[in-house]
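Note to self: keep these together.
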Amino acid sequence: MKHSLDDNRPIYHQIKEHIEDSIISEAIGTGERVPSTNEFASFFKINPATAAKGVNELVDEGILVKRRGVGMFVTEDARSILIQKRKDSFFKSYVIPLRDEAKKLQITETELLDMIQKGGEISED
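Structure:
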């Protein structure tokens, strides 16, 4: 588990993102238990309510399921839900602005695809 938290972003969001990343990378698999809010609180030296906010959002999104007295566990669909969520975010954050900028610069779809296939290796000379 990463030891430090970024001071510029909400802590609960970083804990949520840490769990999401662990599920996407399969460091935590389907049906496995995730650390409890008290374990996160102890590890990061934060209020358990802060950790609980991030974990509870994942429960609300169907990523984790609570088993009373046992802990939080990764749902069967968690990884696919998270990958789709990140793909949607990638599309909104990168693809749409890229397409809009390409349109402004009169870059054709073929030219844009060629650029992407080349890995963006455009000479700056």
